[in-house]
Amino acid sequence: MAGIRAARANVVPGLIVQAAMLAVVLAYYFYPPTTGWLDAMAQVKARWGYLYSAVAAIVAGALLPEILRVLVFQKGKMRRSNLRNLLYTVPFWAIMAVTVDALYRAQGVWFGTEVTFAVVAKKVIIDQFIYSTLFSGPVTVWFYDLKNHGRDATRPAEFFTVSHYRDHVLPVMFATWGVWIPVVSILYSLPPLLQIPMYILALTLWVMIYTWMSEQQRKV
Question: Alpha carbon of 58 to those of 140, 153, 193, 198: distances in Å?
């Protein structure tokens, strides 16, 4: 039930991200100016490799949300907590983006790069039900628990228990699947070099929306 409530809470921001990603993909295939712009972005990704993924994710997952928090919710005033947040989020998002990049590359080797239903379906299943369920979901829950609660965060022994996964990770996974299964289906319908740039776009929208929502909830 907690997972279902989490998924319902994510309906609106999830639809915003999904609609934006679908619009970009349709523009890539049917609007030549967009095709040229995205192909140029793909060439930048080809030159910079994993460094592109790390830097772009730092901007999307760490810097932009903190800038939004300072400009909109703190009326332009920097606080020590903003720097503290960046000390956590900069390395976290850089590392997570590199792991996503490695996953996308590996899946291209395992299943090929053809955009067919069978290939995309296999990649989505590996992405959402193995990588996310066993790695990125639990790690993200633990990381934000550590960032927000410090020494009160889950102890390593508790982290690997069934009860912890059921109570803390599984609700997050329901929310993740509801938003990201459609998003990664769209991503895997693009050429390999565009998958990470579009992942970064989705991440930017997702984190910015949730920064806004979390700050609004604090005021209630």
Answer: 15, 24, 19, 15
> Tokens 């067919």 belong to which residue?
116
Over residues 9-38, the pLDDT tens digits come to: 566 666 777 788 888 888 888 888 888 888
pTM for the whole structure:
0.81
CA separation for the pair 155, 198 (Å, rounded): 35
Closest CA to 207 of 46, 98, 101, 90: 90
* Token pair 């592109």: residue: 52
Q: What's the CA gap between 129 and 142, in Å, rounded?
A: 18
Query: Rounded to whole angstroms, what are the CA distances from 169 to 28, 62, 67, 89, 162?
Result: 35, 22, 28, 19, 10
